[in-house]
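Everyone, describe these structure tokens:
***
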Amino acid sequence: MTRKRILVTGAGGNASRNWIRCLKEFSTGDYYVIGVDTNAVQLEATHGCDVKVESPRLTDSAWAEKLMHIVKRNRVDFINFQTDRELARAINFDCFNPYIFLPSPETIRLCQDKLKTAVELGSDAPLSTPATEDFWRLFDKAWLRARTGAGSKAALPAQTWEIARAWMAYWNFKDGLLPEDFMISAYLPGDEYAHQSLWHNGVLLGCFLRRRIQYVFAGIMPSGQSSSPSVAESCRHTEAEKVAVAAVLKVSPCPNGVFGVDMKCDAAGIPKITEINAGRFYTTSDFSAAIGYNMVEAYTHLFFGSSPKLAAYAPSSYVWVRGMDQSPFCKCLV
């Protein structure tokens, strides 16, 4: 049988490394993986790639042409774009269409703007507004963050407009972000959940819910947390699952591919959606694969026209512990 040839972008990063691990360590298939990254040093440290190729930078005007050259040269069947920036660029080029299985470009563009997503979701999301002094008066305590980007980019809980203004000025100096690149949301003090779901032509095939308990580098983050958990637990939460599925259908009437819905609970314990990641997997995709719920392989099967063997829900009550310079640790709590 011919091996499926899969190109994984950002292969030097943790999210893509774990995505590759799902196919190489936890799957039953035989996959030939072409890992590409602009960072040749980080790429060299990635395990599981059959071929490693330094990729063109997104700022290169010939990015798509050069990446397609890699695709053709390596006889690629399927591409997994793993970062938001790559997805945002890739959906503008028809040449990639035969190689991808993604939500619609309109859905991806909507979800990559966290403020537009919150407005679209209405009461299922926390009250969110542009980051201006007039709107700031609506909040007792607010969560300030960039409207786009991953990893809790430019996120900060702030009690005063002076703090918020100084924070935005710093990010303007650091990354060129403007005030209109920020948003403010009502502060949510409760538990945090991440819901990953897989869809095909509007049909929900399976989902994995986890609660984020502790965070990577939380102690040195200005916000006191990050979007990457160091400790997470697989779980069932009927209301969170219901809210997440309804949100996906709201931003995409006929969903295809993978969606990640981040939620945090308000003071009453009601889950509110803080963002939707459309078209890419969470960094911890290997968590579900390690407990026998391999969504990456199921996603790959869908692209190649096979019916994935996936239960409606992932097993609950497993804890996942991860950190720098250590292999992830998984344990069943029951």
Notes: The two ends are 40 Å apart (CA to CA). The longest helix spans residues 161-175.
